[in-house]
Write a structure and sequence with these properties.
Strand 3 and strand 4 (223-225) form a beta hairpin. The protein has a five-stranded parallel sheet, sandwiched between helices. 52% of the residues lie in helices and 12% in strands. The chain contains 18 helices and 13 strands. The two termini are 52 Å apart. It is of the alpha/beta class and 512 residues long. InterPro entries: Bact_transf, EPS_sugar_tfrase, NAD(P)-bd_dom_sf, Undecaprenyl-P_galact_Ptfrase.
């Protein structure tokens, strides 16, 4: 039975909801939301234009003031007509950003950053083509354009992040959303929306036909949300809450009923997202296909790491980035080696056998962080500490105090500096910068069916297990994360993992 207006009157809407045909709480709320959305898009466009212009100015300053002093081959001046052409460079940038849907779609930060990079790359190529076809080489500076391109890549995401936070505080970026389905899937969706503030969605409530769920509501991450009615009440609840974005999270619903519900919702909603019962399938690079006459929807999935070209790209990236990291880290690695040697007896580098790609074992390098008799220390510690033994069996490591670890070792593990020598494993082709955790041979059986997927990739110095919680994730959760990574690999995913790893390590979240 659907929830009545009288029921809702005792809830968050209070006395404003007296009867079903009552005037909505905010008669123009839907229009206000549309105005807010248009205002937010306009502010984003102005911000992007300002960032593009600032990047061009910065590129000109670097070209005129810095490069001639560092590399004398660059003349100090610029083509006199350069200023006359900068306006259409800015126009090209804005048009490409709009073409990528960056003023109409709400995306998580890293997915939006990927679209930003794609948009500015397209603008860069178009401007280069226009310069070449228009024979304007003498009127333009390619160096300024190249510098601007790299400044755009870094400044645009940062500018959008700052502005969206400001818009959220002003109430212009926040949009109410209704979740249809108060079961496990609906709670997962709500948790995702609560974690990702960048999307700007505020959960107005849930809809569900289950009387028990209507009575007790839904609790997600310690926050209580009301179930405002049943699926049939969607039009009325949308009018009361102003929510025009709906998420249907009821994978157990009869397919015909689901199609009917979505078709009905589309008449009044701005957007309807349907969460299917397809958990675990690869999603990165998946494409929706359809057959007109049969009215059938299908998803085309790809095994990215089965492609020789993708494996070549990943390996080339590892070699290039790994070489740069090694050159930058060599002085630090030399200092760490001295500290490890002075702190306790034993070798500086510890080489442990791990499982690599295809199940082949290799010697994984780390700075030694434990005493030489660490196995005996562990055995005695677990025998006298039942809580530590239970933790070891669940996480395959000690998350708190570990008596095996030396004084210098504790500092190295806190900032993950003990893993720096694994760069040599990367250059040798045994590991990757980003990938699954390098598992111990004794953990092979415990990996179960996940091993077949995880061992398709080279293990990584970092990975989703690290940026997703590190030691706060249990062994089974780590296996699920890493099998998802292998099925959904992309170069952009590796880049985001590496960037996020720096933040996780500096914040020491989930450290040893």
């Amino acid at each position: 039975m659907a929830r009545t207006p009288q029921d809702l009157a005792r809830g968050p809407f209070g006395p404003f909801v007296a009867r079903r045909d009552a005037v909505p709480l905010f008669p123009l709320l839907g229009d206000r939301q549309a105005i807010f959305q248009a205002a937010a898009a306009a502010v984003l466009a102005v911000t992007d234009l300002s960032v593009l212009a600032a990047a061009l100015v910065l590129a000109v300053i670097v070209r005129v003031k810095v490069l001639p002093a560092v590399v004398p081959v660059f003349p100090p001046g610029l083509p006199p007509a350069l200023g006359e052409h900068l306006w259409w460079v800015l126009a090209a940038g804005i048009l490409c950003l709009a073409y990528e849907g960056l003023y109409t779609r709400r995306l998580p930060f890293w997915r939006e950053a990927r679209r930003l990079v794609r948009a500015v790359t397209l603008a860069f190529v178009l401007v280069l083509a226009a310069i070449s076809l228009g024979k304007m080489s003498g009127e333009f500076s390619r160096t300024v354009l190249v510098l601007s391109y790299f400044f755009w890549i870094f400044l645009l995401p940062a500018g959008r992040l700052a502005v969206k936070r400001l818009l959220a505080r002003l109430g212009l970026w926040v949009q109410p959303v209704l979740i249809l389905g108060a079961g496990k899937t609906g709670r997962l969706v709500a948790g995702a929306l609560l974690r990702d503030k960048y999307l700007g969605y505020r959960i107005a409530g849930f809809l569900d036909d289950d009387p028990a769920k209507k009575a007790r509501g839904v609790r997600v991450n310690g926050i209580h949300f009301p179930v405002l009615g049943g699926f049939r009440d969607s039009d009325w609840v949308m009018a009361q809450t102003g929510a025009r974005d709906l998420i249907v999270a009821a994978p157990g619903m009869d397919p015909k009923a689901l199609v009917g519900l979505v078709n009905r919702l589309q008449r009044a909603a701005r957007s309807v997202m349907v969460v299917p019962d397809l958990f675990g399938l690869p999603v990165m690079g998946a494409r929706a296909e359809y057959f007109f006459e049969e009215q059938t929807l299908a998803f085309r999935l790809h095994n990215n790491l089965a492609s020789p070209w993708n494996m070549f790209v990943k390996r080339a990236f590892d070699l290039a980035a790994g070489t740069v990291v090694l050159l930058l880290a060599l002085p630090l690695m030399a200092a760490i080696a001295v500290a490890v040697k002075l702190d306790s007896p034993g070798p500086v580098i510890f080489a442990h056998r791990r499982i690599g790609r295809g199940g082949r074992e290799f010697r994984c390098y780390k700075f030694r962080t434990m005493y030489l008799n660490n196995e005996e220390i562990l055995r005695q510690y677990l025998a006298s500490n039942p809580a530590a033994k239970e933790e070891w069996e669940k996480y395959a490591k000690l998350r708190g105090r570990d008596p095996r670890v030396t004084r210098v070792g504790r500092l190295l593990r806190k900032f993950s500096l003990d893993e720096l020598p694994q760069i040599f494993n990367v250059l040798k082709g045994e590991m990757s910068l980003a990938g699954p955790r390098p598992y111990l041979p004794r953990e092979r059986l415990r990996m179960g069916n996940y091993a077949e997927t995880i061992l398709l990739a080279r293990p990584g110095i970092t990975g989703l297990w690290q940026v997703g919680g590190r030691n706060e994730i249990d062994f089974d959760g780590r296996l699920r994360l890493e099998s998802w990574y292998v099925r959904n690999w992309s170069l952009w995913l590796d880049i985001t993992i590496l960037i996020r790893t720096a933040g996780v390590v500096l914040a020491r979240r989930g450290a040893y």
